[in-house]
């Protein structure tokens, strides 16, 4: 879509990290943005900063996500939905304390995969009712996976499975929604300096930053956001998962 002026967007996980950067970029490009996050204070802070609207709720529950979608559609035609909500707890399949906790595995799948699909299905259904743009496009859904979907490390079984599921749903969803002019694209980031990284020591962050081949540093959330805008502007991108990782390939551990 050539312009986001006169359009609305929903960003899940919009209260921090990739989601906050994406919400800011979409607002700067002219969209009216609904910032959805489970943390009300964070959602409200970002929404206030970008003159957007805050929405609070669990991405894996129907009611709050449906409400956020309708909030966006009430502002302007919903043209973009971006899923950035996610969790990444580490646990071994067979660790010192026994087998991987099943509830933990379930929670990761629930947030990362079911939460992503929840926004995808609700936003796409709303987008099908939009008037088409000049090229016939009605909307775009951008999912967030991870390069761990391809090279999951030891301790990442749940996270990798959840992100692999996001990659797997991208093409069939794009194929189904193509007749409505709704695109589905997934971005698989590598090592990005989000608030999760702030819990590490500077030495650990420096070590991680040396892993990408070029640029040899941690990625920035604004670079992810720039990719979302690039996808929005290029209608030929559809049904694809784009690695955003500086040519990084994760080692086993």
From TrEMBL:
Source species, domain of life: Bacteria
GO MF annotation terms: oxidoreductase activity
PROSITE patterns, A to Z: ADH_SHORT (PS00061)
Pfam families in UniProt: adh_short (PF00106)
Gene3D superfamilies: NAD(P)-binding Rossmann-like Domain
Family label: Belongs to the short-chain dehydrogenases/reductases (SDR) family.
PANTHER family documented for this protein: 17-BETA-HYDROXYSTEROID DEHYDROGENASE 14-RELATED (PTHR43658:SF8), SHORT-CHAIN DEHYDROGENASE/REDUCTASE (PTHR43658)
Protein name from the UniProt record: 3-hydroxyacyl-CoA dehydrogenase
Native organism: Falsiroseomonas bella
């Amino acid at each position: 879509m050539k312009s986001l002026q006169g359009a609305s967007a929903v960003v899940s996980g919009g209260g921090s990290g990739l989601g906050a950067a994406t919400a800011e970029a979409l607002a700067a490009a002219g969209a009216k943005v609904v910032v959805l996050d489970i943390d009300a204070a964070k959602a409200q802070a970002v929404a206030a900063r970008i003159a957007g609207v805050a929405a609070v709720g669990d991405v894996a529950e129907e009611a709050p996500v449906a409400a956020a979608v309708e909030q966006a559609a009430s502002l302007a035609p919903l043209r973009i939905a971006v899923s950035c909500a996610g969790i990444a707890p580490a646990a071994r399949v067979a660790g010192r304390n026994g087998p991987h906790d099943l509830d933990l595995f379930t929670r990761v799948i629930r947030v990362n995969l079911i939460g992503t699909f929840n926004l995808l299905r609700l936003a796409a259904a709303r987008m099908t009712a939009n008037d088409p743009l000049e090229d016939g496009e009605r909307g775009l859904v951008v999912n967030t996976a991870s390069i761990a979907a391809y090279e999951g490390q030891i301790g990442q079984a749940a996270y990798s499975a959840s992100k692999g599921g996001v990659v797997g749903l991208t093409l069939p969803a794009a194929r189904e929604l193509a007749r409505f002019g709704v695109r589905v694209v997934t971005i698989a980031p590598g090592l990005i300096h989000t608030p999760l990284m702030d819990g590490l020591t500077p030495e650990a962050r420096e070590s991680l930053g040396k892993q990408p081949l070029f640029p040899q540093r941690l990625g920035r959330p604004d670079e992810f956001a720039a990719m979302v805008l690039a996808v929005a502007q290029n209608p030929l991108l559809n049904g694809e998962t784009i690695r955003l990782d500086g040519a990084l390939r994760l080692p086993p551990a």
